[in-house]
Amino acid sequence: MNKPTFVLAVNQDLIRLGFEYLIQAEIRNHPIEIVTTKSELRRALAMNDLPVVVVDFETFDFSGIEEVATLAQAFSESKWLFVSEKVNETFVLPLTSALPGANFVLKTNTHDIVVAALQSTMAGKKYFCSEALDVILEGRTRKHIDHKSLLTPTENELVQLLAQGKTTKEIAEERCLSHHTVNTHRKNIFRKLEVNSVQELIKYALKHGLVDLTEYYI
Fold first, then answer.
1. Would you call 98 exposed, middle or buried from its count of C-beta atoms within 10 A (0-12, 13-18, 19+)?
2. What is the residue extent of each domain of the chain?
């Protein structure tokens, strides 16, 4: 059985040497290939069946995350570990969206954390350093709040009721509102959330945390 090859796309000598040492000392018996350009990286991906790419996005010549995502999709057996000087929300959040399987670690993380990141990436498991996890969780929390803030309190209540399968008539009776008022609220909800049906509304609400899963029954 072929062993994974570690492909180091790191154009900073000290960092690259550090990764070479860790791979040789801690993981052992796995080939290492050094690449310095995108063409060399593509060739390494094509030549190795199980490439584990360690990439320093800041020092490599990628035009953007989407370019990396396209490359990762073209070589579906590849696994990716990104290393960086710091956790940048404008990079980490799009990264988790464009490359759901990618991992992330800081250059300043401890020996044990970097080794764990390398081992997890090789095994196809998720690994983010705690600093990156904090940024991701904070960003997702803020995202949920933003979605809820699109609606008024009354509209959020109506979303809950619509997600429970209640009709306009039932909502009007329960909330002591006129049929016309409920319909107006419903139209406003659809317009603000850019959905066209109750089914689309429910999917949106579940995806963005507008309804409590424990209260949602099919």
1. middle
2. 5-141, 150-215
CATH topology of domain 150-215: Arc Repressor Mutant, subunit A (1.10.10)
At the second CATH level, the architecture of 5-141 is 3-Layer(aba) Sandwich (3.40)
Nearest 5°: the CA angle 79, 81, 85 is: 165
**Which of 178, 177, 216 minimizes the C-alpha distance to 198?**
216
Are 62 and 95 contacting, i.e. CB atoms less than 8 angstroms apart? no
pLDDT in tens, 11-59: 999 999 999 999 999 998 899 999 999 999 999 999 999 999 999 998 9
Distance CA(106)–CA(18), nearest Å, equals 13
Instruction: Please say whether the beta carbons of 106 and 131 come within 8 A.
Output: yes
First to last CA, the chain: 47
